[in-house]
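REQUEST ID: PR-0412
SUBMITTED BY: lab tech R.K.
PRIORITY: routine
TASK: structure prediction, single protein chain
INPUT:
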Amino acid sequence: MAEVVVRELRKSFGTVEVLKGIDLSIADGEMVAVLGPSGCGKSTLLRLVAGLETVTGGEIRIGARRVNELEPKDRDIAMVFQNYALYPHMTVYDNMAYGLKNRRVPRPEIAARVKRAAEILGLEELLDRKPRQLSGGQRQRVAMGRAIVREPEVFLFDEPLSNLDAKLRVQMRHEIRQLQARLGTTGIYVTHDQVEAMTLGDRLVVMNEGRIEQVGAPLEVYERPASLFVAGFIGSPPMNGFPARLGEDRASLVIDRIRLPLAGPLAAAAAAPVVAGIRPEHLQCSADGPLALAVDWVEILGADTVAHGRIAGDHRICVRLPGGTIVHAGDTLRLSVPPDRLHLFDPGSGLRIADAS
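STATUS: complete
OUTPUT:
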């Protein structure tokens, strides 16, 4: 096991800068989920740690060693890919043992490691099968088993569940989390799926356009997003955002002619423009609510009903309601806004106004 530290990490492909100075420390035994949209640089970051890409600038350390110039085989890492990458002509046993054979590990030790990994992953009865005889979930377990037998200092997961169906993804998330906790190995898990990130990561690293937007515990990132990007990326549906201004008293928020109380006065200029944010699940239906939502679209999701529409000034928002709530397109919902649930962001930088809530 080992700490992973990257400092001022940069990567360019030709004139295109993909990573723009990444600073991140991952504690020994910690599982960090790196989350972001396609093209944000998260897989490039993982490939740099693995040694599959060369570093343009900055430093990567695994444990006490600087590994920038080391080959992947010398970094003491193991990687689990999206596409399993199993050898179709080999049995499960041989797929799991292949890397150890190449490193000339003694046969008795190979057998012991494969047996131990198979027991952990429930593969004991499948060791003589070929990959074509396995389900998608079983193949992913074999890929993880191949990583486990290496007994690496760091596990690297590159969107390993993307090829699985929804039910199997839930099961595999549970198994990966249990596995990482049992082994106590440092892990970096790259995904574009916020549910995977929230459930698997001790901390989240949210990336955007080659930079880190926020690092924090899953609930911290959800409850106090550091920027408009994070607020819109974390949560399903994402946080509502609409232009507003601070009242002259600095203790209220004005949306067109509607005034909403804040949790407390802000140390900011009076009447300053802001972007106000509130999560759909935090809006409350109330007969005398100050916001009137003109509903134009309803999603019935079973446990939840999500109503989409417009409020004052033609701003689009949505509200998450309990399942079974009867609401139709064309209805008007009166909504109240708990002051302690409001989030305020600077419209220029997109950054959170720190004392908003």
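NOTES: The chain has two domains: 4-229, 236-345.
REVIEWED BY: pending
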